[in-house]
Fold:
Amino acid sequence: MPDDRKKILECEDVSLGYDGRPVMEHLSFDVRQGDYLCVIGENGSGKSTLIKTLLGLIKPVKGKVILDKSIQNGYIGYLPQQTDIQKDFPATVEEVVMSGFLNRCGWRPFYNKREKQLAQNNMKKMNILEYRKRCYKELSGGQQQRVLIARALCAAGGLLILDEPVTGLDPNATMELYESLEKLNKTDKMTIIMVSHDIKNVVEQASMILHINNDEYFYGDVNQYIYSEFGESFKLGREKN
Ligand code: ADP
Structure:
């Protein structure tokens, strides 16, 4: 059956890299509304280069990334890898979440009513509303990640990009985060692109997989991946049986 969901991102025969030198060539994939795409690959395979390209921070060496207008001009919610500096951020949870709107405020020195309501909704979705007056740096790693995702949702037009969101989290916090993301994707129809090393959980979560390995890559749905050469190398197929 043809997939008639809207394509919100399209990469066709694109080469990614720096200063005219490709890290990865002939990459083709697309993301449709409601997809949950996981990007996996060894360190140095080009995952961050791909994310930087999707965010418009670097230009493709060859070809074009086409974004639907709903996610152009900074309307992609982005959760970068967490750094130690971010962990000590001296602000309340609510302030951190609201700062997701800063790009949209322009010169306006306050948040409007609609933004305040949206921030509340996003805190609710990420289960952090009860902590909204707490200081961000006093929260656990898992709670901090959920605050930063609520912040990213304030910027998101319909696409959320997460770079290794469960790294450093304990198993409970990891599962809680996955549950929140699954709800965002299934209930709120938020399109998600997640970079992850956590392949075993990724195949439970994602609908689509992009596995990159410098000069070759796999792109397809989870079932195709599990029985592909890429997936077989992780013995995923055997565990699924
Ligand atoms: P990953 O995120 O999968 O670990 P990266 O996208 O960071 O991989 O890196 C892919 C390749 O691009 C690596 O060979 C890396 O050395 C190179 N690379 C990363 N950043 C830059 C940069 N700013 N300039 C030039 N080369 C880079």
In short: The chain has a mean pLDDT of 89. Residues 18, 23, 41, 43-49 surround adenosine-5'-diphosphate (CB under 6 Å). DSSP finds eleven helices and nine strands in the chain.
